[in-house]
Amino acid sequence: MFKTASNISLRLTRKSQPQIFSRTLRAYSTPAKNMEGFKKAGNRADAPPKHEMVHFPGLMSEKRSFGDFRTVLHTGLYSQIVAMEVPVGGDIGDEVHTVDQILLFTSGRGLATVAGKDQEVKAGDVVVVPAGTQHQFVTKGDQPLELITVYSPAEHLPTSVHKTKEEGDKAEDDEIDEAPEWALKPKAENEKSGEVREDAKY
After folding, report:
1. Model pTM score
2. Which residue in 17, 41, 37, 39 sits closest to 27, CA to CA?
3. Domain topology for 65-185
4. Virtual CA dihedral for 77, 78, 82, 86, nearest 10 degrees?
5. In sequence order, which residues have a C-beta less than 8 Å from that of residue 11 and are 6 or more positions away?
6. Residue 27 to residue 139: CA distance in whole angstroms
7. Residues 130-158 pLDDT 10s
């Protein structure tokens, strides 16, 4: 796949208008079933999403467990939603992305280091990491650190599920876990092609 600057993740320790339709999911009784429901709700196909609502009920709730280190839930034309669970004693890796990243913490405690500045984080906190900024997040305490992260534009393959950080790192090193080209196109190109229309008629 042709690589552009916007879909390359540089790890410092390695080489480096109204919505007409609605799609939702039912409430589930267990965390595992919740995650399967979340995965079904979002756009995880290697194609632009439909012009409809995507609803993740309870995604920000503290009463659940994501389980896997990284699960891509939805990939849009200009953003991507990813659920993460960093295990006790774990971290996400000292890294730099060429895309913006917003992290919304839902459970546990951690230490955020962004551009050399440390900040303790907990459930309910939000951290913004601008594109091209060094960052690291480490779990603190006896519970995993869970969060929803929003990349803009996308950073990962729409179908990515990584059980562990090591699995995710290998997928990136092998150039398997990369954002699709359609998720990296500029607004002007999408508008010219009719992929995005101000009259919302498709």
Report:
1. 0.83
2. 37
3. Jelly Rolls (2.60.120)
4. 150
5. 93, 94, 95, 96, 169, 172
6. 29
7. 999 999 999 999 999 999 999 999 999 99
